[in-house]
């Protein structure tokens, strides 16, 4: 476990260095799909690569790290969340299929999570894209991602050997989890 945590922390440090570089020298304040042709495409590939390295080392945190990098690169929060979630369709879909094939699925829990989680995700995506101004909500999303990142590090280092508590109110948990994940770009897990 210590090796995984050490590798994860090193990768998080690399991500932090990349974020620091782009905070000091932001690309531009405007983002468009045309701007991808001027080299941004490779920055997005780098964001995905770094996020997948962190996710592979820790077993989680793709959305949190990728959203953080994209926002640091100047991508608006709504577009960052949408991009992360579209890429997660494939990675999470493959994981879900694998768990189903390996019979590692708690069907009752799945049923209790699916509908409120979808409702929360739809509500969060709507609020992020249609209600909140990206410039106003960006600091809140950044703070949320920072808290999630710190929580993930805490759980990886000190939370592994704690007894698992019975989860209550799974519907509410799924609703809030879907909402926050859709707005922040990560955190459902």
Task: Describe what this molecule looks like in 3D.
It is a single chain. Helix 2 runs antiparallel to helix 3. The protein is mainly α and 189 residues long. The chain has seven helices and no strands. The radius of gyration is 17 Å and the shape is globular. It has helices at 2-24, 40-58, 62-72, 77-101, 107-131, 134-158, 170-184. It is 76% helix and 0% strand.
Cα gyration radius (Å): 17 Å
Query: What share of residues is helical?
Result: over 70%
Number of helices: 7
Order of helices and strands: HHHHHHH
Shape: globular
Summarize the topology.
Blueprint: H1 2-24, H2 40-58, H3 62-72, H4 77-101, H5 107-131, H6 134-158, H7 170-184
Helix pairs in contact: 1-2, 1-3, 2-3, 3-4, 3-6, 4-7, 5-7
Task: Offer a quick outline of the entry.
The protein has 189 residues and is mostly helical.
């Amino acid at each position: 476990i210590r090796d995984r945590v050490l590798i994860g922390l090193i990768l998080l440090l690399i991500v932090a260095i990349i974020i620091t570089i782009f905070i000091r020298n932001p690309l531009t304040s405007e983002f468009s799909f045309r701007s991808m042709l001027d080299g941004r495409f490779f920055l997005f590939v780098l964001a995905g690569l770094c996020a997948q390295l962190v996710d592979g080392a820790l077993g989680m945190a793709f959305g949190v790290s990728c959203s953080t990098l994209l926002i640091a690169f100047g991508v608006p929060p709504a577009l960052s969340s949408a991009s992360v979630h579209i890429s997660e369709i494939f990675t999470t879909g493959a994981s879900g299929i694998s768990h189903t094939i390996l019979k590692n699925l708690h069907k009752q829990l799945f049923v209790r999570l699916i509908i409120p989680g979808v409702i929360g995700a739809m509500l969060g995506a709507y609020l992020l894209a249609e209600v909140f101004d990206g410039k106003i909500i960006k600091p809140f999303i950044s703070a949320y991602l920072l808290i999630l990142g710190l929580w993930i590090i805490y759980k990886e280092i000190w939370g592994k050997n704690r007894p698992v508590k019975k989860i209550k109110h799974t519907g509410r948990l799924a609703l809030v989890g879907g909402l926050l994940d859709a707005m922040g770009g990560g955190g459902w897990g």
